[in-house]
Amino acid sequence: MGTLKLKSLSFNIFLIALLVCPFSIRTCHARQGKQYWPMPNKYFPTSMNNYNFAPEKISGDNSAIFNVLDYGAKGDGRADDTKAFEAAWEAACKVKASTITVPSGSVFLVKPISFSGSGCQPDIVFQLDGKIIAPTDSGSWGSGLLQWIEFAKHDGITIKGKGIIDGQGSVWWNDSPTYYPTDDFTYNSSEDLQTESNSGKLPNTKPTALRFYGSNGVTVTGITIQNSPQTHLKFDDCTNVQVFSVGVSSPESSPNTDGIHLQNSQDVVIYNSNLACGDDCVSIQTGCSNVYIHNVNCGPGHGISIGSLGKDNTRACVSNITVRDVKIQNTLTGVRIKTWQGGSGSVQNVMFSNIQVSEVKTPIMIDQFYCDKSKCANESSAVAVSGINYINVKGTYTEKPVHFACSDSLPCTGVSLNTIQLNSVQESEHLSGPFCWEAYGELETATVPPIDCLKTGKPSGATVQSKSDYC
């Protein structure tokens, strides 16, 4: 009898538990303040197979949600909503794993703003479902700023949603008037909309649309960044970065509008994204290591690039870069490494694999004589380039299939080519065959077209730089 009562009591407790947590035990745990992360590491998974989903924060505490509309944002695309965003951020910053929301159905005009993580609780989510637009008047930019929207010094920051960040960059790219009276309004304390009378010229310094600085555990997913005055998405001095299911969109003619720019950042994953811009789809600069890019569509633009590195005799270090399973179409180059004469340091351990190109001017390029000026001085020192592997690069080109221009004093070494099949779009007098200069490596398979200019063995007679010049 006692056993029967005990079983009955246990069953009743189970029924009560179902009523309290009707959705799932997982939801019940979330109400108790616990978080669930589907990956081995909260920010950066240990297995490449786990890159297809993002860190997930479960929270049932509505008090941890901070809507910018509740802090005075108008969302009409004309009122200045900057102060409302700042106020919402200040409140969200005090709560661990809080969420600041930018709701759909609204357009928010926001002037240059920095969301500082100094003194903030970790793991904040910026839920962007609406549209944020940049001002187009010169008065909002002063003498010039390096970025429009910045997230700095965070420990766990996620930007996600279906929203849009629009830099309205055409006023920066063109010589067209910088003032549009139908677009520019300011919002004052009496809630009156006033036309902003400012016809001044925009500064020469063009801002990046979205920048992350000095942060660990950064996730950007779902959003679209478009029409940035310059680079769309930049990571400076960041670690454990994930970018996926992101769209970048600006015209092919827009100058210096890189899609994603990496600098001094490590452990970075970029995947399942569409990048169309006027410069490099992805630009990998000095100080970057352990970067993995896959399943990305690039074009128009300048391709996926490492560099430029070593400008003004600087030391540059890049290592352990993998680019695979990408499609590159209608671009200046496909996969490229570019360095300046006079630099030092190294680029090493790079893999370009399963690259599909279509109507790309030059699909494969190493250029150690890079120069974006009318004339550059010849110098003997160089950024060392070694251990560069190309596997299964196929498609069409419009000018030259392969271009290896390496340093006279410090040739490229360890260049390997495997299953390269590149065909010209059409016969033309402007087409040329593969070009190699001081490039040493190995043809692991036959190539189309035949690349017979690659040197074998080790370079002799080249200047040996000091070991301190390497990374």
Structural commentary:
This protein is mainly beta and 471 residues long. It has 4 helices and 32 strands. Strand 11 and strand 12 (193-195) form a beta hairpin. It starts with a helix and ends in a 28-residue tail after the last strand. Mean pLDDT is 84; it is low at 1-62 and 176-199.
What is the beta-strand fraction? 35-45%
The largest sheet is: 19 strands, parallel
Terminal CA distance reads 77 Å
SS class: mainly beta
Helical content band: under 10%
Taking pLDDT < 50 over at least 5 consecutive residues as the criterion, the unreliable ranges are 1-62, 176-199
Principal-axis shape equals elongated
Q: Tell me the total number of β-strands.
A: 32
Q: For the residues shown, what is the average pLDDT?
A: 84
Total count of helical runs of at least 4 residues: 4
Supply Rg: 26 Å
Keyphrases for this structure?
471 residues, 19-stranded parallel beta sheet, 32 strands, elongated, disordered N terminus
Task: Provide a short characterization of the protein structure.
This protein has helices spanning 2-20, 25-31, 82-92, 170-173, and strands spanning 65-67, 76-80, 99-102, 107-109, 113-116, 124-128, 131-133, 147-152, 155-160, 164-166, 185-187, 193-195, 208-213, 216-221, 224-226, 233-236, 239-244, 247-249, 260-263, 266-276, 282-284, 288-298, 304-309, 315-329, 333-339, 344-360, 362-367, 384-397, 402-405, 412-424, 435-437, 439-443. By secondary structure, it is mainly beta.
